[in-house]
Amino acid sequence: MKNFFANIFNRNNDPQSIISFDVINPIYNYLYNESNSLEFKVKGIPDSVFVNLYSIPYSLDHEVGRAEVKKSGFNNVYEVLNELYKKLNIGTLTEEMIQEGLEYDFIHIHFYSQPSQEMKKHFNRVINNFMIFFCCTNSLEINDIRILYSSSHFLDYTKGLLDSEFLDFNTPKNETQEIGIKDFKLVLQGICEYLNLEIPKTVELPSSESVLLDENATIEDFKEFVNLVSRGTIEEEALNEYAENLFENFNDDTKEDYESTEQHFAFFESIDAWNSDWKFDPEDAEYFISEMLGEDFKFDYPEETYSHDLFPYIQSELAKSNLELLTYETFGDNYLFFIANKDEVERILELSELTKIEINQL
To answer: H or E element: which one contains 171?
Structure first.
């Protein structure tokens, strides 16, 4: 049963924004009436997107959930919901309303994004949690949404909810939120495409093309990948050979993960790449990037700056030539750097997801 209550102003239903009640309500209706969870992939989003419908009190009405609620200092899950409503500026439930035992639903969408420049020092990706709550604005009927956001993993789900914060998606607080909101818009378009839901014509779509990732990689995808990561420097015969080997490796279910990684590693070492320890000096960077470019490379950096702290300065200099430094994920304490054309990086990352050859931005 769908029951919500709120008494707030400034309705979130910009006819041009995909983050709006008119877009999200049909998603809710599908989750409520058809299936309460979804998992799919979107181009440019690392790994899968997960969409779940939760219902208070029932989604936390189990042994673990009740223990989490008690550990957080509350007597019941409705008290937790009231804490969330306070963050969202939604009218809280009275004791009489709690005693009615009604259900209050919310949608939880979570997925990974590329990290901010600061977070890149520590993580290859950052998780985004968007909790969408429904409410009334100047109406007796549900006509609005409010969103809580967190970039932390929910090891304790109740604590994760309580530690989340109100999200003003028009005014992100930091670069992590800014990246997350940008990807969230793409994810919402992906959900509508995945469920075949019509998006209002007034909405400005994040992409004019299909955003769903087709997980059936072809030999042509591998050829494109090899061509892009080598910046078109490999002759056609060699390119076809590399692509065929990688494609065969991709389809070989008998291989262990480490064997696939070894073949990826061998490929990158055969093109212009720099296999580096996680610790390196500016002089190392200048030498090896010069080797990869086939021309002298210098960049400005502050004194006593080393290793990953050099990345912003390297990237700034490379960007002048429309280039970007990337790395293959070695799953070790080293980098396997290569240089790509900056305007092709987004496509490389898409193909990385498709081919299972993991590439990270720096």
So the answer is: none
CA–CA separation, 20 and 8 (whole Å) = 16
CA–CA separation, 147 and 277 (whole Å):
42
Q: Find the mean pLDDT for residues 178-184.
A: 96
Write 228-233 long-range contacts (CB < 8 A, 24+).
228/340, 228/341, 228/344, 228/347, 228/348, 228/351, 229/268, 229/271, 229/326, 229/338, 229/340, 229/348, 229/359, 230/271, 230/272, 231/339, 231/340, 231/341, 233/271, 233/272
Say if residue 185 is exposed, middle or buried (CB neighbours under 10 Å; 0-12, 13-18, 19+).
buried
List residues bridging with 207 in a β-sheet. Answer: none
Closest CA to 106 of 57, 152, 178, 175: 57
Q: Computed over its alpha carbons, how large is the radius of gyration of the chain?
A: 24
- Distance separating alpha carbons of residues 175 and 104, to the nearest angstrom: 32
pLDDT (tens digit, 9 = 90+) per residue, 98-128? 999 899 999 999 999 988 888 877 777 899 9
Condensed to tens digits (0 to 9), the pLDDT of residues 161-180 reads: 999 999 999 999 999 999 99
Q: Which residues pair with 281 in a beta bridge?
A: none
- φ/ψ of 92, rounded to 5, equals -80, 165
Tell me which DSSP letter residue 147 carries. Answer: E
The position carrying tokens 């995808």 is 221
Q: Where are the domains of the chain?
A: 21-195, 219-361
CB 267 within 8 Å of CB 250? no
Residue 302 tokens, joined: 């502050």
Q: Where are the alpha helices (DSSP H) in the chain?
A: 21-33, 63-71, 77-88, 95-99, 157-163, 175-195, 219-229, 236-251, 257-270, 282-293, 311-319, 345-355
As given in the structure block, the two tokens for residue 280 are 């390196």
State mean pLDDT over 24-48.
93
**Statement: residue 10 has pLDDT above 70:** no
Point out the least confidently predicted range of 132-136, 251-255, 280-284, 344-348. Answer: 251-255
